[in-house]
Amino acid sequence: MRALDADSRRTVTPGIEAVPKAKPPSIWIVILNWNGLTDTLGCLESLQHLHYAAHRIVVVDNGSTDGSAEALRRTRSQPPIEIIETGRNLGYAGGNNLGIRYALDHGADFILVLNNDTTVDPMLLDELLGAADRHPEAGCFGPWIFYMQDPDRLWFMRSEWDAALSAFTAPGKGRFASELARQSTSTEYVCGAALFFRANVARQVGLLDERFFLVYEDSDWCFRARQAGFECVTVPTARVWHKIGTSFGSEASPLRTYFSTRNKLLWAEKHVSRHEWWRILRGALRRLYPTIRMDRIAARSTSKAMLWAAAAYTRDWSRKLNDPQEVAHRRGIFDYILRRFGDCPPKVRALTDAWANTQGTAAAPGRVAG
Questions:
Q1: Do 230 and 123 reside in the same domain of the chain?
Q2: Alpha-carbon gap, residue 290 to 269, rounded angstroms
Q3: Nearest to 169 by CA among 156, 150, 180
């Protein structure tokens, strides 16, 4: 026999307390913007089509000078977006940390750190939450990330540190999704372009290390999470599309070279053995010096060969002294040794602008490259 509770208007069974419907997990999406209004608006537009409704969006404006913050405040979005202005460029790590703190303070159960130069599949949050339910041992989850300009080709699926190469490998990069098994697998880190995690992971392991500023901060954070007992898992049914290279204007820019050189050494200092760290440092230092092709000298063993080698050595010295990438590499090593972290020196940005002009491209604004 069933009776109607007149106060709550709920149908109840006598002697049995009605169980309220479980509240869906709250997801906060953190987007960082630096002079990238067009990309950010495109990202926000794609988020309007998300199927999962229990989400909020916070955009952190990282000291933009193009009027981005004002334009974003005029943007109509459902749900309405929250906007935080940093007032200056805090880097990928510092800017996203403000957004993550805001999400934590507002009761987030899950947080998605998302690049502003991405678009997402409407079922992205549903798929990520489903993976979280299936993998209670995991704390960090990564969608498959595809090239924006080649939407069926993978850019990032998972990654592993290869000690022999002293570098991260990216299995599946450049492959078509149809060529790969579509099942969740473990990964050593989740790419920061779309990093989904349980809020309690951030509460336990802390936020992004702001010394990195840009590059290696995502892998560092995931390694810290794994050391705390949280697995990192890929979610092939969750899909994101990413414009590659907009953080630096180009992946081959002096800006990228500087941060990659300096931050790889810092990352290795934190996460690999002393022996392996020293091997990485030696390799970085070895690049500073030209090489003499002793094999050619030995093969000819003539004065002409010696003169040829000396001339080649001199040319190599001149190139290394003046080439923008080599200058950036050298500065990255020195700043690491001198413990200068955070943003890069103004000279590196000037080098990048000059280099971009020689390439016939602009040093495009990216997620934080202010």
A1: yes
A2: 26
A3: 156
Asked whether residue 138 is domain-assigned, the answer is: yes
Instruction: Return the HEC string of 223-239.
Output: HHHHHCCCEEEEEEEEE
pTM, rounded to two decimals: 0.85
Tell me: do 209 and 158 sit in the same domain: yes
Q: Which of 172, 177, 176, 174 is nearest to 158 (CA)?
A: 172
Burial 181-193 (b: 16+ CB within 10 A, else e): eeebeebbbbbbb
Residues 6+ apart with CB under 8 A from 200: 139
Q: For residue 63, tell me if it sits in a domain.
A: yes
> Which contacts (CB < 8 Å, 24+ apart) does range 16-23 have?
23/54
Task: Judge whether 370 and 352 are in contact, CB under 8 Å.
Answer: no
Within-domain flag for 188: yes
* Residue 76: CB atoms within 10 Å: 7
Domain interval for residue 289: 254-359
Local confidence pLDDT in tens for the 370 residues of the chain: 334 333 334 444 455 555 567 899 999 999 999 999 999 999 999 999 999 999 999 999 999 999 999 999 998 877 789 999 999 999 999 999 999 999 999 999 999 999 999 999 999 999 999 999 999 999 999 999 999 999 999 999 999 999 999 999 999 999 999 898 888 899 999 999 999 999 999 999 999 999 999 999 999 999 999 999 999 999 999 999 999 865 555 667 999 999 999 999 999 999 999 999 999 999 999 888 765 444 444 445 555 554 555 555 456 555 666 789 899 999 999 999 999 999 999 999 999 988 888 876 555 444 444 4
Same domain, 220 and 304: no
Sign for the CA dihedral angle at 286, 292, 293, 294 comes to negative
Tell me how many domains the chain contains: 2
Amino acid at 192: G
- Is residue 212 included in any domain, yes or no? yes
